[in-house]
Amino acid sequence: MSELHFNPWFIAILLATIILWKVDFFTSLLNLKAFQDEVPTVFADLIDEETHERSRDYTRTRAVFGICSSAFSMLLFFGFWWLGGFGWLDDWVRSFGLGPIWTGVIYIGALFVAGQVVTLPFQLYSTFGIEAKFGFNQMSVGLFVADMIKGLVLSAIIGVPLLLALLWVFQSVPLAWLWGWLIVVGFMLVGVFLAPSLIMPLFNKFEPLEEGELRTEIYAMAEKCDFPLADLSIMDGSKRSSKSNAFFTGFGPTKRIVLFDTLVEQHTVDELVAVLAHEIGHYKKRHVLQGIGISILTTGVMFFILGLLLNNRALFDAFAVKELSVYVSLVLFGILMGPINQVLSVGGNWLSRKNEFEADAYAAQVTGQPEALVRGLRQLSVDHLSHLTPHPAYVFLNYSHPPVSERIEALSQAVD
Known about the structure:
By secondary structure, this protein is mainly α. The protein has a domain at 8-202 and 310-349. Helix content is 72%, strand content 5%. It contains 15 helices and four strands. It has helices at 8-33, 49-82, 85-94, 100-133, 141-172, 176-199, 213-224, 261-266, 269-284, 287-309, 313-318, 326-367, 370-383, 392-398, 404-415, and strands at residues 206-208, 229-235, 246-249, 255-260. Strands 1-2-4-3 form a four-stranded mixed beta sheet. A hairpin with a 5-residue loop joins strand 3 (246-249) and strand 4. Helix 13 runs antiparallel to helix 15 (404-415). The longest helix has 42 residues, at 326-367. The chain is globular. The model has no long low-confidence stretch (mean pLDDT 90).
């Protein structure tokens, strides 16, 4: 194991990590201070003072938890880094005498398992502490363990072959970054097609929505929107959380709409049809294809940069790793991309918020009842104990959806 070098790579990664954490910390404080003492007028008929205070407590608790867990993770990372952990782990896995590819699998696998172990207490507290305290958690310990085991098995089944392919490509093939990009894109697209039928049923039960007014109205809306709805299902989301949602999956000529059972229980037919019209709006506005295209392009840029930084001696020295290798290059590149991805996510969140407004406008137009979506959004905010007046800086950095008050204002203009 070599000594840690305080070179430009070391300084850049250290400063970027600390600065971004401080930005997140201060915007979280601003967000907490943005809570109004009185219930906003638009929610006055739905939320009493007690519920408003519970919303404040929930936001505060989650913010403090997020700050503490991120600070712990950052300090643990710094400690492992500065004590030469990356170099020590490399020396240890090399002692097994395996080839560079399987050595890389063990190295990356060990870091992955260590990360899972470190974050497990935080996951447990989040689920059985915070979410349970505020009445959201419905998950048993047995289900939590089963989900964790299934997740680990799936990570091995999907991740190990992908990692083997990438390590082999970067060891053996010219223009490895290009082939690596194509391999990852292939895995992404296959996952998009297979997840609804093979992966999601491992975690949740899906049943066809029974005959009745809701099913009739949703299919009528899908026909009106020329939306190729092949399947309409109810998912047992209530076995994990009382929070609700809806989404659609599928590409090509057939689409599948999934409703959480909690969503159906908590909303009227008009509200549910409006929510589904919103989801259809994402499809009609090509937001999903847009997201996939952006993901493919950004992945390509990342792999190109990876090709340039592969086996960078100065970067290895910054992490006290003596021997150059493809697998350590992948890990160090992942660390380097962490702060960069945080910055890029700001642009992604901005685009997502824009798309949400467009989907809302589509739903208002096609249903002719924008007030139904307004009612649905208001009820979701109440049920989820949402922050009703978030700070603009926090929204800018973290929100993938616009604040509900802004969405309601835009929809109210459609009503007028």
